[in-house]
Amino acid sequence: MIQIQKHTKKDKLKSQSQEFTKNRYSVLYTLKGQYQHVGCSSEEEAQYVLGTLMTDGNRIPTGIYDSKTDSFEFEIIGQYFHAQDPIADQQERLHEILTVSKVLRRRDGSWHPAVMGRASFFA
Fold first, then answer.
1. Is residue 26 within 8 Å of residue 39, measured between CB atoms?
2. What pLDDT does residue 82 have?
3. How would you classify residue 56: left for phi > 0, otherwise alpha for psi between -120 and 50, otherwise beta?
4. What is the distance between the alpha carbons of residues 23 and 39, in angstroms, rounded to a whole number?
5. C-alpha Rg value of the chain to the nearest Å
6. Closest-CA residue to 40 (of 66, 76, 18, 61)
7. Which pLDDT belongs to residue 10?
8. Beta-bridge partners for 19
9. Of the candidates 85, 105, 109, the residue with the CA atom closest to the CA atom of residue 28
10. 32 DSSP 8-state letter
11. 3-state class of 25 per DSSP?
12. Within the chain, which residues score under 50 in pLDDT?
C-alpha cells in the first residue's frame, strides 16, 4: 500500500522553524572590515565561539544575535563603549547591527536553511 503525505503550509513552516532553531544564535564579527557570522544552536555554543574570536588576531568580535528574541548582545568591551554613547547613538548602532544580523541570516538561510555555519560577509 502506498501512502501519500500531503504537506500543508503549516507543516512547511514548522519544518523551517525547526531548521532555523538549529542556528538560533549568530556570532557576529568583522574580518577585513566586513561583517561575518557563525550560526550556533545554543547560547553556550555562541558564547564559546565569541570567546574564541576574542583571541583571534584577525577577527574582531561584535557580539551575539538571538533570532528568537530579535536581540543583540555586544561583546563585553563593545558593550562598555556602547553604553558610554548618547542614547540616540546607541539606538542607531543597535538598529544597524540588528539589520546586518538579519541580512546575513536571511542570505545564508536562502542557500541552505539547515546549515548556517558557513561564514558570510556584509560590507
1. yes
2. 86
3. beta
4. 5
5. 17
6. 66
7. 54
8. none
9. 105
10. T
11. strand
12. 1-3, 12-13, 15-20, 111-123
> What are the grid coordinates assigned to 120, written together?
558570510
Q: How many residues does the chain have?
A: 123
Q: Give the integer Cα–Cα distance in Å for 114 and 20.
A: 6
List beta partners, residue 122: 35
Q: Which residues contact 20 (CB under 8 A, 6 or more apart)?
A: 67, 109, 113
| Cell numbers describing residue 43 | 547560547
pTM score? 0.71
Cβ contact 97:63 at 8 Å: yes
* DSSP codes, 35-71: EEEEEESSHHHHHHHHHHHHT-SSEEEEEEEETTTTE
